[in-house]
Amino acid sequence: CHTSGMLTPNGKEYAQKIPREELTHLILRLLQAWKEPLSHFNQHIEHHQELPDDSLSKAKQISNMVHELKTGVEKVTEKMQSMGIISNSLNGMASSEGTGLSISNEANMMSDSDFIHCFRRDSNKVQSYLKILKCRILPENSC
């Protein structure tokens, strides 16, 4: 996986120990790391004549959802900063330069099944980290 070099906590217990700011940054970095590979994946599957139209549509939908999620996390981050929940040290960190990853051809050369496996793995991480962040910010949700 092209994101294997990113340091991410193994397990929920370790993720819960990460400060809110770092966890937010990690979520943004993971989402940003998938922008280009998803775009290449969409281009790749467009050339598969044998794929049904709904497969292509779903792939584009996933890319759009990742983009919308990243935009939403950025908005939540801005709100958290304005409320003083986290510092402003995350400004500009969601850009590709801020991810600390150079997207190599590795992500573009993966087989479709490897690509989907890696995407699912990182999606599960983002989902878990968002749940932890939500529980920290809104403890009344009885997490």
From TrEMBL:
Just give the chief location class: secreted
Instruction: Tell me where on the tree of life, at the top rank, the source sits.
Output: Eukaryota
> Which Gene Ontology molecular function entries are recorded, alphabetically?
hormone activity
- Classification via Pfam families: Hormone_1
KW Secreted (keyword) present: yes
Q: Where in the cell is it found?
A: Secreted
What PROSITE patterns does the record point to? SOMATOTROPIN_1, SOMATOTROPIN_2
Q: Write out the GO cellular component annotations.
A: extracellular space
**Which keywords, in A-to-Z order, does the entry hold?**
Hormone, Secreted
Q: Which InterPro entries match?
A: 4_helix_cytokine-like_core (IPR009079), Somatotropin/Prolactin (IPR001400), Somatotropin_CS (IPR018116)
Q: Name one GO biological process term.
A: response to nutrient levels
Q: Which family does it belong to?
A: Belongs to the somatotropin/prolactin family.
PANTHER family per the UniProt record, alphabetical:
PROLACTIN LIKE (PTHR11417:SF33), SOMATOTROPIN,PROLACTIN (PTHR11417)
Name this polypeptide is given = PRL protein
Encoding gene (name):
Prl_0
